[in-house]
């Protein structure tokens, strides 16, 4: 079934002479069970689309539907993992994860328990009280994933989640995410991953959506063979 539907979504930026079309009439549908990679050159509007889909930003034109409902404000079914982690540096690992649970209205006692469980699931058992600066890039991104998963997102949006990591950390984190996704053991029903790495996209996703820039448009949208069938 259809989760996300973008209809003729456009985004203009700037004003006056500098006004330009960053995203031009994008149509995109994401269905349950899909792992979609959104590919394209820097500046083609990939991050902009993710912000529109998660409701962090309202598109200048067009419509966004989630499960058939027009999206207004933050999308409660989606969460996002950023390239550069975006953790609060003055909060511990556990506090960073708990904050996401608090935003979702989970009570204090449960927040603690759920946060510890999530941290454990991403393999950071024992680092609950560490601060982001004390962790490697790969570990920080695991906190990013734990925080995103805290809201049990149906749609998990990933904005180049591996590109700030060293090669080995990226490889292991990709493997761990894929394993979790293929196991079906997460509430997430679809993944939308921004990437500019075609190899990574083909390895992870079962569908590729390719954009070009000036203006940002979808120029190809096709399925690829699943490297590993989802259970
Ligand atoms: P990508 O993620 O594909 O690199 P972005 O969505 O970040 O693309 O950006 C698309 C274009 O819009 C780029 O030219 C970028 O500089 C511009 N842009 C992105 N965000 C803003 C903004 N908040 N204000 C003005 N221009 C922006
Ligand atoms: P990415 O390519 O991964 O999207 P960027 O470095 O292009 O990252 O953008 C980082 C942030 O800066 C984004 O939030 C984007 O919206 C904003 N941004 C990018 N270009 C501009 C711009 N020309 N004016 C204002 N904000 C911008």
Structure description:
Residues 4-231 form the ABC transporter domain. The protein is of the alpha/beta class and 231 residues long. The protein contains 6 helices and 10 strands. The chain has helices spanning 46-54, 93-103, 108-121, 137-150, 167-183, 198-204, and strands spanning 2-13, 20-31, 35-39, 61-66, 69-70, 78-81, 155-159, 190-195, 207-212, 217-223. The strands form 2 sheets. The chain has a 6-stranded mixed sheet, sandwiched between helices. A hairpin with a 4-residue loop joins strand 9 and strand 10 (217-223). The radius of gyration is 18 Å and the shape is globular. The mean pLDDT is 93. One adenosine-5'-diphosphate binds next to helix 1.
Compose a concise summary of this entry.
Residues 4-231 form the ABC transporter domain. The chain is α/β, with parallel strands linked by helices. It contains 6 helices and 10 strands.
Task: Tag the structure with descriptive keywords.
binds adenosine-5'-diphosphate, 4-stranded antiparallel beta sheet, alpha/beta, 231 residues, single chain, 10 strands
Succession of helices and strands: EEEHEEEHHHEHEHEE
The unique ligands bound to this protein are: adenosine-5'-diphosphate
Instruction: Count the DSSP helices.
Output: 6
Largest sheet: 6 strands, mixed
Low-confidence stretches: none
C-alpha Rg, in Å? Answer: 18 Å
Proportion of β residues? Answer: 25-35%
Q: Count of DSSP E strands?
A: 10
Decide which structural class fits the backbone: alpha/beta
* Anisotropy-based shape: globular
Helix content: 25-40%
User: Roughly what is the average pLDDT, rounded to an integer?
Assistant: 93
Q: Termini distance?
A: 17 Å
Main sheet: which strands, in order across? 6-7-8-3-9-10
